[in-house]
């Protein structure tokens, strides 16, 4: 029998070795090759920031509801971290408060003990802002020094810190509006700016957490199956919800939620009486309690109806996870609408009002979560495994 040429035998051996088992198992594709960063650790850090910002929104709401926001009349980012440490220091702070319009027109005769109550609310609000800044700075610098930030994420994480610094400046801009003239509260449009930026920061953190919860290669594969129409509807719902949050801040800024306590009418009318009494006319959209509450109600109805349309469209999604997330949005919309009606009927007591505000946080995050699923759907097997 003729022997096979050595060259042919060598070629056969090389091919067989190439298709045989290998001693090393590949750990990822080209997308995840190289330095992938500590995605899990960064995500945990962002979740801590998310929780702190949520608490900050709640404490800010309680500070507003207890009329405590003007109790500290100076902005001292560093030295203001320490509260008054002596009786003389407390008297000095109280004297500064007695010089502003809110004390003269609303709280004249307030005792030092009552002043301390509202002071601690505002001090706690500002202190929590400092804590958030420190948590962000410590986490960012540690991840940066250890080179654990995932590729492409440095600017995104840095932007959170920049927005946090801007939020502190806007907070003082808001407080300053109530320290002079005849203002007994902060300007409502400045309050809306302050709250709106808080929700922007919260939304960015949530979106980043969603992205870091899945590998880059998985997100790129999922994006090929994105539901463009549903994502567009989710984006519209997000924008309308954000507008409603801003209008809600205007309501809170002028205590409009305590002005008309009947529903569905307002003092027996669809459009409340004296809705355009202020001059010039544009002031009514910011300062007229009846008109501002009316706009908040109508926008709430529109948000609910549009949310129902988006939910109905989401029912046709081929992805069960996406349908579930939009179901959660619709359920929270219903809960939030009921909370809004109850808040009005009971003249916005702080216990109900703060639940309504936290409901806005929950709805905001659920909308973002559903929108993310429309852009990056989760694939499941027949058995339901992701």
From TrEMBL:
Subcellular locations according to the entry: Cell membrane; Membrane
Protein name: Heme A synthase
GO molecular function, one term: heme A synthase activity
Membrane topology, from the record: Multi-pass membrane protein
Species whose genome carries this gene: Roseivivax jejudonensis
GO terms under cellular component: plasma membrane
One family name in Pfam for this protein: COX15-CtaA
Keyword Lipid metabolism: no
Top enzyme class: oxidoreductase
Cofactor: heme b
GO annotation terms (biological process): heme A biosynthetic process
Enzyme Commission (EC) number: 1.17.99.9
């Amino acid at each position: 029998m003729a022997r096979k040429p050595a060259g042919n035998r060598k070629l056969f051996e090389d091919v067989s070795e190439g298709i045989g088992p290998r001693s090393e198992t590949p750990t990822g594709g080209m997308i995840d090759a190289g330095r992938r960063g500590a995605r899990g650790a960064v995500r945990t850090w962002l979740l801590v920031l998310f929780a702190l910002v949520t608490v900050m929104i709640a404490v800010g709401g309680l500070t507003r509801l207890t009329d405590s926001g003007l109790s500290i009349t100076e902005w001292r980012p560093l030295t203001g971290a320490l509260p008054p440490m002596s009786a003389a220091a407390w008297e000095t702070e109280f004297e500064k408060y007695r010089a502003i319009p809110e004390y003269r027109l609303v709280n004249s005769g307030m005792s030092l003990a009552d002043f301390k109550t509202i002071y601690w609310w505002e001090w706690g609000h500002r202190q929590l802002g400092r804590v958030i800044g420190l948590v962000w700075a410590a986490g960012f610098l540690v991840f940066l020094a250890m080179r654990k930030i995932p590729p492409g994420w440095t600017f995104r994480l840095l932007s959170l810190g920049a927005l946090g610094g801007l939020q502190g400046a806007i907070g003082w801009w808001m407080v300053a509006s109530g320290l002079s003239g005849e203002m007994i509260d902060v300007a409502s449009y400045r309050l809306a700016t302050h709250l709106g930026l808080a929700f922007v920061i919260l939304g960015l953190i949530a979106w980043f957490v969603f992205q870091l919860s899945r590998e880059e290669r998985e997100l790129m594969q999922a994006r090929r199956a994105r539901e463009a129409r549903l994502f567009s509807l989710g984006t519209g719902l997000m924008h309308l919800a954000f507008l409603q949050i801003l209008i809600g801040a205007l309501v809170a800024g002028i205590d409009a939620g305590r002005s008309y306590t009947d529903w569905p009418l307002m003092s027996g009318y669809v459009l409340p009486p004296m809705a355009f009494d202020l001059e010039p006319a544009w002031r009514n959209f910011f300062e007229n309690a009846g008109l501002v509450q009316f706009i908040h109600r109508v926008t709430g109805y529109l948000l609910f109806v549009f949310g129902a349309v988006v939910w109905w469209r989401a029912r046709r999604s081929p992805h069960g996870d996406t349908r579930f997330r939009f179901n959660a949005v619709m359920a929270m919309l219903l809960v939030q609408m009921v909370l809004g009606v109850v808040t009005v009927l009971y003249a916005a007591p702080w216990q109900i009002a703060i639940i309504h505000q936290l409901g806005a946080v929950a709805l905001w995050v659920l909308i973002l979560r559903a929108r993310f699923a429309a852009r990056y759907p989760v694939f499941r097997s027949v058995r339901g495994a992701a």
